[in-house]
Design a protein that fits this description.
Helices cover 47% and strands 12% of the residues. The protein is of the alpha/beta class and 321 residues long. It has 2 domains: 192 residues, Rossmann fold (3-Layer(aba) Sandwich); 115 residues, Orthogonal Bundle (Arc Repressor Mutant, subunit A). The strands form 3 sheets. Strands 5-2-1-6-7-11-10 form a 7-stranded mixed beta sheet, with helices on both faces. A two-stranded antiparallel sheet has the order 3-4. It has a two-stranded parallel sheet with strand order 8-9. A hairpin with a 5-residue loop joins strand 3 and strand 4. Helix 2 packs across helix 5, helix 6 runs antiparallel to helix 7 and helix 8 crosses helix 11. The longest helix is centred in the C-terminal third of the chain and has 19 residues. Keywords: DNA-binding, Transcription, Transcription regulation. This is HTH araC/xylS-type domain-containing protein. Pfam families: HTH_18. GO terms for molecular function: DNA-binding transcription factor activity; sequence-specific DNA binding. It comes from Novosphingobium malaysiense.
């Protein structure tokens, strides 16, 4: 079972809290079904809401959040999300970080155990304090930059990138970018297909996504492929699901989209791999497996054929630091 957690701190921004709640709810609705019929798309998931002491958390004067329990030293999660919170200024944030030392130590333990950890805005200060942001610059909005520079004068800041992904750390500059960070986390702990689907239903940009197909058969087939492209894909099985022949499916799909279902799967894998190469420092072997290739050598050859350069060269040329 995939274990997700959100640490909710007093003053957390509603949008940051909602990013994971909404993403989890949407993914859970789709977990055991695809567009046509039933079938396992994602593994079971569980979301645990945490606070530093187990008590309810006040976001503002009108809203409080009930949590499941307090953090514990033996916690192990696949993904932990810490949304941004109101700081009140440099001196208040510095004092708060001292008060949150147990949380900082808890995050350091999770990071050391390999949990994927995401943080947004002011919550990045907790990861910096935990020693999890050392050799790379973290994203920051101009309004928060002076405060964080005062507290962490040696830490590197990046005021250009909206999201920074390094190893098991995902950082968002603020709540406007939190939905995309959660989608990237789902790329990692579920599958790129899950992240792709989440972006599409939340209105985020999805690579190589044309308008809804005029042919309902083609649109159903395309959505089916988009939910399964990171695993073994059988076009014959898809045709059977749709109760048409494979030849008819291929003919109508190509007439509508200008490519066969198999070519569409290849396009999905290629564009997803490009995004992952540009946005993360995951190994090429890991990305190959994530987008549906059992053999990294086959992935490298297919990528070079499509891009005209190797995957590693493409990554360098597209400015991943």
């Amino acid at each position: 079972m995939i274990q997700l957690a959100m640490l909710v701190l007093p003053g957390a921004f509603h949008g940051g809290v909602a990013a994971l709640l909404d993403g989890f709810a949407l993914a859970s609705e789709r977990r055991d079904r695809v567009v046509l019929g039933e079938g396992p798309v994602n593994r079971d998931m569980q979301l645990t809401l945490l606070s530093s002491d187990g008590g309810e958390v006040r976001l503002d004067e009108h809203v409080t959040v009930q949590v499941d329990r307090a953090i514990a030293s033996n916690d192990r999660f696949d993904f932990v999300w810490v949304p941004s919170f109101r700081t009140g200024g440099g001196s208040l944030l510095a004092k708060r970080l001292q008060e949150l030392r147990p949380v900082v130590d808890w995050l350091a333990g999770l990071g050391g155990s390999g949990s994927l950890i995401g943080a947004s805005g002011s919550a990045i200060s907790l990861l910096v304090s935990a020693g999890l942001v050392r050799d790379f610059a973290f994203p920051v909005v101009p309004a928060l930059a002076p405060t964080l520079r005062e507290i962490f004068p040696r830490a590197k800041q990046d005021d250009h990138r909206e999201i920074v992904e390094r190893g098991n750390i995902l950082l968002s500059r603020g709540t406007a970018c939190d939905d995309e960070l959660v989608a990237r986390a789902f790329d990692r702990v579920l599958s790129p297909a899950a992240g792709h689907w989440l972006r599409s239903v939340m209105g985020q940009t999805v690579e190589s996504r044309e308008a809804v197909a005029r042919d309902p058969l083609v649109e159903s087939a395309r959505l089916w492929l988009e939910q399964r492209f990171t695993g073994p894909v059988s076009i014959a099985g898809l045709a059977q699901e749709l109760s048409v022949s494979q030849a008819m499916l291929t003919r109508r799909f190509k007439a509508e989209l200008g490519r066969t279902p198999s070519e569409y799967v290849s396009d999905l894998r290629f564009t997803t791999a490009k995004r992952m190469l540009a946005q993360s420092n995951r190994s090429i072997e890991s990305i190959a497996a994530a987008v549906g290739y059992n053999d990294a050598r086959n992935f490298r050859e297919a990528f070079r054929q499509r891009a005209g350069v190797s995957a590693s060269t493409w990554r360098t040329d597209n400015n991943y630091p």
